[in-house]
Amino acid sequence: MSNLETAMALLMKTFDTYAGAEGRKDSLSKAEVKTLLEKEMPGLLKAAKNQSEVDKLIQGLDFNGDSEVDFSEFVVLVAAVTCACHDRCSK
């Protein structure tokens, strides 16, 4: 597989690893999102000034208002963080 195909497969595998630990298998609950962020993006959590910022981030991911984060919403998070890192690294 190409690098991009590998990255896409890793995104899907990472989402599936955390989704469904509680509740639906095709979405992440708030607790599952927190666990994913703690294990997969610890730098993001360290950069947060307080827990309410993390809660706002999670709430902001839920575009359709179903109190869960589906794969499309998860991909938006990864893309946004990637863009932020790319902008920071290129300056």
UniProtKB/TrEMBL annotation:
GO cellular component, as recorded: cytoplasm; extracellular exosome
SMART domains membership: EFh (SM00054), S_100 (SM01394)
Domain annotation EF-hand: ranges: 49-84
Entry keyword set: Calcium, Metal-binding, Repeat
InterPro entries, A to Z: EF-hand-dom_pair (IPR011992), EF_hand_dom (IPR002048), S-100_dom (IPR034325), S100/CaBP7/8-like_CS (IPR001751), S100_Ca-bd_sub (IPR013787)
CDD domains in UniProt: S-100
Keyword Calcium: yes
Superkingdom of origin organism: Eukaryota
PROSITE patterns per UniProt: EF_HAND_2, S100_CABP
PANTHER family: PROTEIN S100-A1-RELATED (PTHR11639:SF134), S100 CALCIUM-BINDING PROTEIN (PTHR11639)
Protein name in the entry: S100 calcium binding protein P
